[in-house]
Amino acid sequence: MKTTPLFIHQIQQGNPRAFEELFDTYWEDLVNYGYKLLEDRQASEDIVQELFLEIWDKHENFHITNSLDVFLFSCIKKKILRIFRDQGIRKKHIESLYRLTSKSESPIKELLHDELMGSIIKTLGHLPNKEKEVYILHEIQGYSVKEISNIFTVSEQTVRNQIASASKKIGSAVIKLLIP
């Protein structure tokens, strides 16, 4: 694969042959990488297709500071982490709704539950992105500290620190709600 400055420049200029070579060279490897993380071939293909569409649509701004491999695989990893984050939050909402509708609870319990969930979701929205992604992967998706450290290529201690920090912030928000 030509990852020379000339090749990158050809992509920036919108050269269809250079883009086609990029696509043909990386398509299968990126889809397989995505499939290993998602365990869903179609979703993986959709993510890779989305990445190539973004590159084509923004080819004038296509700048690589490290290797092309690292850039492309990092983009796929970030897209998958966003999916995990979004699915985790959605899953929590569905589970909460199911619990609320499956039990006949008093209106006070329902109100308290709704306020708690709202407070947690609001706090999640204010967390730094990495911290939020780590917390969701661990607490909602059930990933182990080791698995998360492998996904983000950081130390296990860094993951533990991010989980502890997010848990502390969420805990504080819940306590403020319960003890005004």
From TrEMBL:
Coiled-coil positions: none
Family matches, as InterPro entries: RNA_pol_sigma-70-like, RNA_pol_sigma-70_dom, RNA_pol_sigma70_r2, RNA_pol_sigma70_r4_t2, RNA_pol_sigma_r2, RNA_pol_sigma_r3/r4-like, Tscrpt_reg_LuxR_C, WH-like_DNA-bd_sf
Taxonomic superkingdom: Bacteria
Domain HTH luxR-type: 142-169
PROSITE patterns named in the record: HTH_LUXR_1
Organism: Belliella marina
Lineage of origin: Bacteria, Pseudomonadati, Bacteroidota, Cytophagia, Cytophagales
The family this protein is said to belong to: Belongs to the sigma-70 factor family. ECF subfamily.
SUPFAM superfamilies cross-referenced by the UniProt entry: Sigma2 domain of RNA polymerase sigma factors, Sigma3 and sigma4 domains of RNA polymerase sigma factors
Annotated protein name in UniProt: RNA polymerase sigma factor
Gene3D superfamilies: 1.10.1740.10, Winged helix-like DNA-binding domain superfamily/Winged helix DNA-binding domain
Alphabetically ordered keywords of this record: Sigma factor, Transcription, Transcription regulation
